[in-house]
Amino acid sequence: MDLFGVLTAATYGPGAAVVAGLIGGVAFLGVVYGGVAIGMTRMNFLRVLGSMVAPKATTAATIAIGVPIHMMMSAAFGLAHAGALTAIGVTSVGSAAAWDALIGGAHGVLVLVAMPVMLAMTHPLVRSGDIEEPRAFMTGFGSMTPIGSLAAHIAFGLVTGSIYAAAVL
Question: Under a CB-based contact definition with an 8 Å cutoff, are residues 46 and 119 in contact?
């Protein structure tokens, strides 16, 4: 920290960022699959990810492929979130949690706008009709899917920011 208590580039901890992102990724999945369990959404997130790489694989295999893809993305987003928190200059776990929940929410909104178009254009199983058309804001997977997706991204930010700040502050 500098004289004013603001994080500096020297306090950026990439190892802590990766760990925080991985734990945040698990929290994200908890919210997503909690939504599936209560009927909030029909989107099997890990299957959607895995079947982009292996569209002809079994559901179990696509989920097994989706897990490492999701965890790699979580680690990368952990690095990005930590960089943003460092640039903002958070000085406490609470401020990191709040800022990162906001960052996660913004990310979630971007996903809800861009992902339906990207899936419709590029996902082999969406194009073949084997996975539902995502429609605007992912509502093709259920009308509450946007709320669940946004909540999962906010949870990612909240958990990632809290754990990262606890490790580096």
Answer: no
